[in-house]
Design goal:
globular, T-fold, 13 strands, 8 helices, disordered C terminus, alpha+beta, three-stranded antiparallel sheet
């Protein structure tokens, strides 16, 4: 199965393609499609990363109080982030960039260079301080702030990459464990996706079968803060603390950008309210607590139980 991997967005992005002919022309076309798919990760990172002072989102941060014309890509990323922020009551909030810096998440992943901004740390901000003008495609930051579009940007890149591969009978996109599985696997079956155990390395807590769906997981094991206060990389924007009631959240949705953002929001909201959020949006999800208690949407619970039964009977 042809595949290619690139380092991007602080992780590795891999594209695998099923199907297509074996002629030199078919092989070349498939390679070009994979290259175009992976290219989206670089394009969106250059636009949305807060780890490069020259990126579009950091240039926006330098013009607080001004309606700044932005690219269609940045406008869409911010629009999606604000929509999830509103739907989650602020449990997901893209204006946490400065807080993330202060927690030690301030290094460019390729060079290790420390990124420092000159925004006051004690000035409260929220997603309500970001204004969009759809007609003019402008973004206004009403207060000095830094947008952290990490989850949205990676999900958006996965979705754009998937558009480049729809001509093939199957494909898999993996960006640091966030996935989009298109069509069928090489055996002609739905893709089987393992869900990482949040407390046992190299073990799965369950698995699901999906096709034409994104599967994204947020876990407290992913990145630990080297900065003041410790904690993991997910924070509650309303309190500034790392939530302690959840170990991992896995979401299955039609798009990776929705799955990734909702996984973060559900993590912050906790098991009960997190599942309610997922069900309101018509997506499936599994939330695992630090004591390995499971909370699942109805559809996810049925799928996991079915696969568990199959493994037990085999």
């Amino acid at each position: 199965m042809p595949s290619s991997t690139v380092p991007v967005m602080g992780t590795l992005a891999t594209v695998q393609v099923v199907g297509g002919g074996v002629s030199p022309q078919d092989t070349a076309e498939r390679s070009c499609a994979i290259e175009r798919a992976l290219g989206w990760f670089h394009r969106i990172e250059q636009c949305c990363t807060r780890f490069d002072p020259a990126s579009e989102v950091m240039q926006l941060a330098a013009h607080a109080g001004v309606a700044v014309p932005v690219s269609a890509m940045l406008f869409e990323a911010v629009r999606l982030a604000l929509a999830v922020a509103e739907a989650s009551g602020g449990a997901f909030d893209p204006t946490v960039g400065r807080r993330m810096e202060l927690r030690g998440f301030d290094r460019e992943h390729r060079t290790g260079a420390v990124i420092r901004t000159q925004i006051a740390a004690d000035e409260p901000v929220s997603y309500r301080d970001v204004s969009l003008d759809p007609g003019r495609k402008t973004i206004t930051l009403r207060r000095p702030l830094i947008l952290d579009l990490g989850a949205v940007a990676k999900g958006l890149a996965i979705d754009m990459a998937a558009r480049e591969l729809i001509a093939y009978s199957g494909f898999a996109i993996d960006a640091g464990g966030d996935l989009y599985l298109g069509g069928r696997n090489p055996e002609g079956d739905p893709w089987r996706v393992g869900i990482r155990h949040p407390r046992e390395d190299h073990e799965l807590i369950d698995a699901v079968h999906v096709t034409n769906r994104a599967v994204c997981t947020s876990g407290d094991y992913e990145r630990r803060s080297p900065g003041a206060g410790g904690g993991h990389h997910i924070i509650d924007p309303r309190s500034g603390d790392s939530p302690a009631s959840v170990a991992s959240v896995t979401v299955i949705a039609q798009t990776a950008v929705l799955a990734d953002a909702l996984a973060t929001a559900a993590f912050v909201l906790g098991p009960v309210d997190g599942i309610r959020l997922l069900e309101r949006h018509g997506v499936e999800g599994l939330i695992v607590t630090p004591t390995l208690e499971r909370h699942a949407t109805q559809g996810m619970d049925s799928e996991v139980n079915r696969l568990t039964t199959c493994r037990t009977d085999s």
